[in-house]
User: Fold this.
Amino acid sequence: MMNSSSKSLSNIIPGTIIEGKWHKNRYTVQNVLGSGANGIVYLVQFQNRQVALKISDNGMAITSEVNVLKSFQKVQGYTLGPSLIDVDDWEKGDKKIPFYVMEYIHGPDLLTFVRKRGYAWTGVLILQLLSDLESMHHNGWIFGDLKPENLIVTGPPSKIRCIDVGGTTIQGRAIKEFTEFYDRGYWGMGSRKAEPSYDLFAVGMIMINTAYPKRFSKTTGGMKQLKPLIQQKPELQKFEKILIQALEGHYQSAKQMRDDMLELFSFQLAGNQESKTRQKMRNKPTSAKGTMVGRRINKKKRRKKGIIESFIILMIISFLYFLYIYEQIL
Assistant:
């Protein structure tokens, strides 16, 4: 329930100037971007560009989120969360209200992007997400409230970003914010202890959510309910083993899950190439004399080509990620 102070913060009209008490930066309010338990986020104009301003009467929540964003900025190559621009107080009458300003991340949310561009994009975006989560976990943070509504796809080139770090928690503590559908505690599949496996459960549920955009209600809970739902969707079937590993908490790091996905993609690519080669051979007439020799030669060619294709896809993905990280550093 929103208190009277929070209600007043949610009613700031467009055109209002929010001026920082200490840094004297002036921000012109344009419209509301979102609201939650710990504050309101506004789209504001600052120095001829659009940025996002979060304001709250909960000073501790603002301080916590600012510390998270500052910590992220120290992680080389990390770009999942928004960059921090300013931290200040707004004097409104006799009140001093804390706020911070961050990068405005613009684009469709994950589910909207996948619906428009096709399910094939899911794997690419999840690989990006896992890469950033690995970096985040390595530096002692768990995202906590990971869900598609907060995952924005920017670009081109397409990159997955997160617009809300309010649930981010130091490893080892209790998760401070969560959304039931993505929470393993809700499904009876683990604790709410902040650890990598908590985020990876959420990643698994996000992948399931892309195949079930309207989600579904909890009945029996656990794998008894989730496994049949995975098996019912062709787009999820190929990820079944990975999803079960993530949901059951077998992955100890985001890197392990990411490596398994890369291996799966490489295997599928090699399999598709071999299938095409076999089809060509069936359509090509051969003499009885040359059949055995031809089969041996083609088998060697297919094996060699499969290895080459696997190597190429890994190199392409690696190059894209290096380019992605390099662009962010610049």
